[in-house]
Amino acid sequence: MDLAVILVLCASCLLFLSFWKQSYGKGKLPPGPTPLPIIGNTLQLDMKNISQCLSKFSKAYGPVFTLYFGMKPTVVLHGYEAVKEALIEHGEEFSGREPNPLIDKANKGFGIIFNQGKTWKTFRRFSLMTLKNYGMGKRSIEERVQEEALYLVEHLEKTNASPYDPNFILKCATCNVICSIIFKNHFDYADRDFLNLLEILDENMRILSSPWIQFCNTFPVLIDYLPGSHNKYFKNDADAKSFILEKIREHQASLDINNPRDFIDCFLIKMEQDKHNPLSEFTVNNLIIILYDLLGAGTETSSTTLRYGLLLLVKHPKVTAKVVEEIDRVVGRHKSPCMQDRSSMPYTNAVLHEIQRYIDLVPLSLPHKVTHDIKFRNYLIPKGTTILTSLTSVLHDSKEFPNPEKFDPGHFLDENGNFKNSDHFMPFSAGKRICLGEGLARMELFLILTTILQKFTLKPLVDPKDIDTTPVATGLVSLPPSFQLCFIPSRRRTDI
């Protein structure tokens, strides 16, 4: 080998090692497994089941430890006490959002979910206020969810009690609810534009949950130079944003500032009010990404929870029978379930909480980062450090939930059969970054599942004990395995 090549290689290695030593030795971070130069702890992690890996590391290094994803240190919070202390007691310091290279490249700094600082606070405040004004937690949105649930029932009746995979139709229902809030549209389940949007949201969620994307986000230089599913993500992303922009243009053409119809109108009115402010962040580009954020979060997570809930209900027929009995007793056969009924349905409420606890939908939440240097449990965590919160360790805490791997509504019932809440119930995360659609998601889960159980008997295709509820992906989102069941009408339509 040429001497010059050898010298260049040696110099490069020394440079990498020097940089690594400087990075690794910086600050007083929590302990953790020894990383390798350049690749960090990557080889020690099973990207398909990272939650299990974090649990093992926690046993060795405690509830707060450091991992290196590539050259970047990441502080992991494992267990309720550590998560609560960071996200709730020190909520402001831990409210930053860790950049996601793939999504950041697509969004170009716009939007809400992957934004931070003043921009994030402005849009989160605006979104919460607007969603509240347009019914989140109020009767108006409740009526929309009730109507969508009945529309869903009509389509399930058309299956004629034949084996049916509910994945698609549940996505239609949850997407339509959020569309009614942001677009003032209700789409037919056969509408071509609507189906294209659903396909994009579904495929992009699967891409984001894949080990390949986790690897690309660890080594973002790969995104620009290698082929792979990330390129399909970018194409889907552009198509969805074109659809959204078309809706915005339609609203601009028909806007009445004295009579806002939906989220888009409210945002456009704010744009008009701020049009002379050159620093205003209320722009069309931000509106596009915010709507895309709301669509993605409001469709995929809720529909997946509902689908997983149906799988667990057919797996546990005794649980389902108790829920149906409570629905018949409290709601009856003739009226639609409403949110007011929930307080009189402790067992159903417990089942819905247990579904969310058991499925552990977003095992690691979305990564945070600290907004400035902070002393936390005698460690000095530098500003900008990535924070990973293990929601699995909270939702599956054996001290709070005996036999946490078992589906048991008793986790949320006291000895008298009354519903009992738990501070460990964090499926929506906690603190400043808690999911802004939590209220809507809870409403959809209660109203849609109880309406389905009011109208249908759920019949599995196999013996319940043979039903597998193991998630098929535990990257970004835990997805249930594909399944079919029969929706058998419980009463004649004239009785409804």
Automatic annotation (TrEMBL):
Keyword Heme carried by entry: yes
Domain of life: Eukaryota
Species of the source: Chrysochloris asiatica (Cape golden mole)
GO molecular function: heme binding; iron ion binding; oxidoreductase activity, acting on paired donors, with incorporation or reduction of molecular oxygen, reduced flavin or flavoprotein as one donor, and incorporation of one atom of oxygen
Signal peptide limits: 1-25
EC number: 1.14.14.1
InterPro entries: Cyt_P450, Cyt_P450_CS, Cyt_P450_E_grp-I, Cyt_P450_sf, Cytochrome_P450_fam2
Protein's UniProt name: unspecific monooxygenase
